[in-house]
Design brief:
Largest sheet: 3 strands, antiparallel
CATH architecture of the domain at 64-191: Orthogonal Bundle
Number of strands: 5
Strand content: 5-15%
CATH topology of the domain at 64-191: Lysozyme
Number of helices: 6
Order of helices and strands: EEEEHHHHHHE
Helix content: 25-40%
Structural class: mainly alpha
Shape: globular
Length: 192
Amino acid sequence: MMIDVMRRNKINCIYQPLNHSSHWFATIGDNERTILSNGSSDRTTGSHPPPQAPPAPLENPVTDACLSCICEASSGCDTAVRCNGDVCGMFRITWAYWADAGKPVQQGDSPDSQNAYANCVNEPYCAANTVQGYMRKFGQDCNGDGNIDCFDHAIIHKLGGYNCKNQVPIVYQSKIDECIQRKAIEYGAVRQ
């Protein structure tokens, strides 16, 4: 089975579920690609594509589509969600996660102010910047597929930068898989 991915708005959508039962990825890149699934060979050359060198770190490594999926899986992207226990905002971010992300703040706020954490992670734009900062620090290939993509970002977001090779909770995994499949259709991935 092969999946063709078309470039739209500078986003190449490549999708793979976390459970590895079929292959769909979410990455960003400058080149159009044909993605192979279930060990298939490249339809033009009959061989597997050569391994690629890891990309240079990106200013914002997480695509908007991936941020949307992480948000959906975390809280249903409910902007009314505030702090509950040790997590805050629609991305359900802890203070430690925010600190590891570089303590981003809203304009006019100081990282050292008492309310900087809650003010940031309860505001969608600052919360998304927090996720980007965390992924700049901890982005890695968690699922061993040779790519750092949305599935890795989603795993890192849920399990943390040091635990991303652990088992992902099934409810979260299912929400990520469903969202990424919707995004594949939305951004033009064609399943053959």
